[in-house]
Amino acid sequence: MNFVVLYDGGVLAVWRYSLAIAAVSALVSAEWYAAPAGVRPAMRNAGASILPGGRIVAPAGDQYFTGPGPFGLAVSPSGKVMATASAGQDASTPIVMERQKDGRWQLSQPAALDSPGQFDVSDWRGVSRGLVFSGEHSVFASEGASGRISLVDWSAGRLRSIDLNQGGANRGYAGDLAFDAASGLLYAADQANARVAVIEARSRQVIAWAPLAGAPFALALSPDRRKLYAAIAGESGSLSVVDVSDPSAPKVEASIATGSADPSGVAAAGSQVFVANSDADSITVIDGATNRVEAEIPIRIPGLEQLRGVRPAGMAYHQPSGLLLVAEAGINAVGAIDVRERRVLGHIPVGWFPTRVTVDRDTVLVANAKGQGPNAPFGGSQWLQGSLSVFPVPKADELPARTAFVMEANGFGPHAAAPQPLPAGVRYVALIVKEGRTYDEMLGDIPGASNGPAMGSPGLARFGMRGYVDGQRQRLSIKDVGVTPNHHAIASQWTFGDNFYADSPSWPAALEYVARKGATVAAFGVQPRADTSIRDQDRASQFIREIQERYVKTGAELPRLLFIHLPNDYMAAARPGDGYPYQESFLADNDLALGRIVEFLSRTKWWGQMAVFATEDDTRGGVDHIDARRTVLLCAGPWCKRNFVTHTNTGFPGLLKTIFRLLHVPPMSLEDAAAADLADCFATKADPAPYHALPVDKRIFDPAEASESPSPAAP
Q1: C-alpha distance across the termini of the chain, in Å
Q2: Are 465 and 484 in contact (CB under 8 A)?
Q3: Strand ranges for 560-708 from DSSP E
Q4: How far does CA 652 lie from the centroid of its chain?
Q5: Which is it for strands 343-349 and 333-338: parallel, antiparallel or unpaired?
Q6: For 658-690, how does the pLDDT look when each residue is reduced to its tens digit (9 = 90+)?
Q7: CA distance 364 to 358
Q8: Is the pLDDT of residue 95 over 50?
Q9: Could you give the dihedral angle defined by the CA atoms of residues 463, 464, 467 and 471, in that order, rounded to the nearest 10 degrees?
Q10: CB contact at 8 A, 261 and 237
């Protein structure tokens, strides 16, 4: 592999691999898979819900809404009280439920969380996955980045804390917890400082520390409570075995390689220890007596065995049935594993993105981080509202039907008919990724296209062609102004999607994958964050200059995949002296840069063989009447349909699937393999008409004025 950085500001990186495209074409699966939603938009229902991206969830058992993003789950010793730890953007707090006489659970707000005299909610600094009961009416809850663990005692109506920022370390991150009720000892993972704290629960004092080889993500105690197991994430994941027989002097007695960089859960039962490997889709079985790996239990999808994406996470063992129950975050299910036979028996459908599972007697409780589907179209942290699924431990005769539903709901059922073909004339793909806008904010004012109406809400199109620029009482506000003329013109000239959703992929990982499979890739501006100190005009100019100098003038072969990052529609505070008199000026900068890049590409010799996709990296909790994740998708180029709107319910995995197909690259994961692609965006004949970039309103953004102002990060 050759890796070349040509521009360290816009950042053009080129990957080249010697593997021929023809050699990998044969690896593409002969069977065709697609998410089941079709053109139905994301929608939450009491039974089955349609997810953004086209999958379906219909959880087994009873469902209860919790706070946003529950990543912790615990049940009291009696089984009558349950708590989840909700880690939403605006509400980070334990949610407590009590079981009623009829068996159902009812929300019970602890007094300690509702009494200003006892506890000011502003003191609460967050919640991580650590959550354990210390009695019937109190829980220890890790606060994450504050480095604290809070004891919430609602019988006494108070909250007390334990600070892990001691013992010569600071900036601790309080993670998973394990509690030995018999001895009154609490074990806490400090992820930031790669150690475990031993805490005397009654006095809330740290009595010892156990340094580890890496950041501990998940903890579990052995049945005899003499060993603590810590799953260590990193380049090569492992399981640390800590001897806590003398809690005042804990010591690591073994470090066991798990074959996964992302061990995401650990459970101990009898003489065995189980480690969930999120990136490998497997469970490592370890002999607790010898600290040796006994077996590896793979979790595979029939027909797609070579791909990963099940993402096993939290686990719980049910002694009477011998079942290890595994939260499968990637496929919205709980896997049932026979640990004696060491094989997966089936899958039970639960909510969206399950993270933790526990068993109380014969009842299974599952925390679903994203709930049961879209539940807040208007953004904010509530769009991550979670849920709890409660159902009996599954019986063997129930598993086949439930497994069949999980397969179909995720799009894992192969189609007999051939997939819709993509044009063979497309050889080059340009992917332009922007930042932070929903569909309605940008394109909600487009009534439709030649093939019918679009699902938009004009009243929400604040960045549309009758948009609003807010002067914030410092300068004149502007109404009914065209904020994004090029976005609208590109949508009108070619194809746009009104049922496309953001799901925050790792673009660098996808680019490297394409390169490994034989295609050259050039990436411009791959950055970990949106840096609005650099103008998108400068990014566009640098991209155009690099393509002209390296490929147009020299006649060199253009890379098969071009990636361009234009983040300024993320917006920032107005900088009048730098050419941005309004926050919306950044959007106008972004719009013009997009138009200039498409115009430039449309005048190159490669245009006749090119497809251009433009989308947003995320939606930042924006406003949309369908779902807060629905975002912009533009498809431009000679082979794209003219004035067409695609209603296919898909998202980033579907976009990647389309790009992979165009470049003759096999699927990367279960997500893109089973996603609905964008084949309906393409025509059977090419129309090589170029694009003419439109000017932006100079009252919002004047590129000439902006170019005269120095930029601290300009090339």
Answers
A1: 27
A2: yes
A3: 561-565, 610-616, 633-636, 644-646, 650-651
A4: 11
A5: antiparallel
A6: 999 999 999 999 999 999 999 999 999 999 999
A7: 6
A8: yes
A9: 20
A10: yes
